[in-house]
């Protein structure tokens, strides 16, 4: 399956037995902002979550500022939770 097939390639493939060649034409532009999932009885369409949280994205609103280690641990947990299936709670043990 290809957008197009050159005449030379078509001639070469035509000589082979049991080969099917499909020219589908140019595909339309993908919509990278949407994620499609089949669900029981329908289709779920939602925004894709392609971003990652960085320290510069965070705003501390408490009087006590977190340490660099606490921020690093929180960002690590955030990344882990992003890739866990279903609703996630990630706990980081202080060792």
UniProtKB/TrEMBL annotation:
Ranges annotated as spanning the membrane: none
Pfam families named in the record: AICARFT_IMPCHas
Domain of life according to the entry: Bacteria
Gene3D superfamilies reported in the protein's UniProt record: 3.40.140.20
Single annotated GO MF: IMP cyclohydrolase activity
Biological processes, Gene Ontology terms: 'de novo' IMP biosynthetic process
SUPFAM superfamilies per record: Cytidine deaminase-like
GO cellular component, one term: cytosol
InterPro entries: AICAR_Tfase_dup_dom_sf (IPR024051), Cytidine_deaminase-like (IPR016193), PurH-like (IPR002695)
PANTHER family, alphabetized: BIFUNCTIONAL PURINE BIOSYNTHESIS PROTEIN ATIC, BIFUNCTIONAL PURINE BIOSYNTHESIS PROTEIN PURH
Name of the molecule in the record: Bifunctional purine biosynthesis protein PurH
Lineage, uppermost ranks: Bacteria, Pseudomonadati, Pseudomonadota, Gammaproteobacteria, Enterobacterales
């Amino acid at each position: 399956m290809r957008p197009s097939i050159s005449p030379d390639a078509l001639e070469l493939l035509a000589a082979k037995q049991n080969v099917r060649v499909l020219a589908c034409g140019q595909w339309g532009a993908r919509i990278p902002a949407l994620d499609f999932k089949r669900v029981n009885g329908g289709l779920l369409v939602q925004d894709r979550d392609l971003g990652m949280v960085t320290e510069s994205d965070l705003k501390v609103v408490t009087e006590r500022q977190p340490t660099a280690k606490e921020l690093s641990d929180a960002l690590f947990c955030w990344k882990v939770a992003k890739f866990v299936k279903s609703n996630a709670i990630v706990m980081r043990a202080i060792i």
